Amino acid sequence: MFVGLGTFAGGCAHSGGPGTSRTQPGKIAEDPASRLIASADAYLASGVGQSQAGHLNRAREDFDRALDVYLNAPGGAMSDPQLAKAYRTTLETIQLHEFEALAAGDGFTETLPEPASIDEVADLPVGGIPASEETRRTAEDALRSEHNDLSITLNDPVLAAIDLYQGPLREWFEAALARGGRYLPRIRQVFAAEGIPQDLAYVALVESAFKTGALSRAKARGVWQFIPETGKRFGLKQDWWVDERSSPEKSTRAAALYLKQLYGMFNDWNLALAAYNTGEGRVSRNLDRLGGEADFWRMRETKWLARETKNYVPMIHAAIIVAKAPEKYGFSVAPEPLLTFDTVPVEGAMDLRLVAECAGTPLQQIQGLNPELRRLATPAGRFAVKVPTGSGATATECLANIPAEKRVAFRTHTVAKGQTLAALAKRYGTTTRAIADANSLGSGKALARGAELIIPIDPTASRLPAPSATRTADAQPETPAAPTTDRAVRISYTVKRGDTLAAIAARYKTTVARLKAWNRLPGSRLAVGDTLTLYTRRAD
Q: CATH 3.10.350.10 region(s) of the chain?
């Protein structure tokens, strides 16, 4: 989650340049100062590792211990030039990681999607060139040796798609098939329970390469690439907190129901697949043009289908053939293990970094188990968050004892007569965009009297605090808690004509990603007069 410093990737080093250490491995530091520095370095390295895993509380504890080593040294941290230099470097390192924590965002920062494979493969040439006899023989042999519960057609478009998987798409296909190990067994179980062919599980390979965060140009999302309207039709919740189109379990059930419904409409799986891609209305109209003849391959030869749909069905047939006999095509696939998990009930919005810490696992694993969560937090209501198998009991007890001040900061507000988004944003110290996004409101939508709104609250103080440290009686009074000139300050910036995020980021020595995270910006467009919040070093 956090971008670590290369110097501390495998240990800490304050002198001798990046990647070096003060003492040789296996040797004991010869002087007291070196021993103190080595002890502080161990805490600092542990803190960096914890912050990279998203365990913010543990990171802060380790950082504080590193500082305490210097502050509790005989004579204080500034009594020895070597100690003073190491102490200042430790402070700088900790402050940089505090900056990274801000860049990662608070619980309201939206997780970023990734491109959907359907956009990558839809326009590739499928068909037009007769397949080689070798390709045909290999495919025929694969079909004879594997059981299929979906009727597969071996024509030139399907064989051409096989050539694509072996050629330009080889690495993509192999990675997708390995990733599918996380989900395929459960997909087959759901499809079998619904009475539809289990081979249709490979529709997800073509749609998304089994990526839960995939988002297409058409705003289709998740493993099964549901557009918003179809997702809602099949019960997939979509709001500011969650998007169940990205839930492998819930979207798979929805996909099974949708495919089953489409087959009931057309009584042909190829036409059902075409409709899954382009919509049942378009397939129905094209069937009428063909006089009701239910033949996708004939429909494919007309000009009525988009190129993507013409490619879509052959690519699914080809994916089934190759995926069920990958060794015949020279693939060496090690499927990733099936995802298993415990579930933990959570009341109210909880930062996922705290969930990860309580479960004793990296933040990325919690996000991977809960891809439907759009934010770095669980929803405001009740939510069953998934944690690694075996950690459920510990995480449940730990999360139950999280104090209120460590939960994601938000409030609820009941709208009074005449209140506007702008007035509420001013009242709560947030932005109209943040309130609108949190409540799925259009920018010009009037507020209904009595409506209850979620109000995101900026959890950062007006100044990023320096790492806390406890002084002891023998610490020197002149020892600074942190270099004042390097302390981060929060400022407001009013957007002027011609401003861009890149220009503002360069001016204040930060990044576009951080500006977006700090201000919860979904895109890069700015309007003159907008107010941005950003953090910069006082010295800058």
A: 422-432+448-537
pLDDT digits (tens, 9 = 90+) for 283-324: 999 999 998 888 999 999 999 999 899 999 999 999 999 999
CA distances from 72 to 23, 69, 297 (A): 22, 5, 79
Tell me whether strands 531-537 and 488-494 are parallel, antiparallel or unpaired: antiparallel
422-432+448-537 is classed in which CATH architecture? Answer: Roll (3.10)
- Tracing tokens 């941290």 back to the chain, one arrives at 77
Residue among 412, 402, 419 nearest 380 (CA): 412
CATH fold of 114-329? Lysozyme (1.10.530)
Q: Rounded to an integer, what is the distance from CA 470 to the centroid of its chain? A: 37
Give the chain's largest Cα–Cα span: 94
Backbone phi, psi, residue 31, to 5°: -125, 160
Burial of 133 by CB count in 10 Å (0-12 exposed, 13-18 middle, 19+ buried)? exposed
CB 384 within 8 A of CB 347: no
pTM listed for this prediction: 0.65
Task: Give the separation between CA 79 and CA 241, rounded to whole angstroms.
Answer: 52
Tell me which residue of 224, 520, 220 sits closest to 377, measured CA to CA: 520
CA distance 60 to 15: 23
Interior/surface letters 181-210, b for 16+ CB within 10 angstroms, e for the rest? bbbbeebbebbeeeebbbbbbbbbbbbbbb
Tens digit of each residue's pLDDT (9 = 90 or more) over 465-513:
333 222 222 223 222 233 233 445 778 888 888 788 878 887 887 877 7
Residue range(s) of every CATH 1.10.530.10 domain in the chain: 114-329
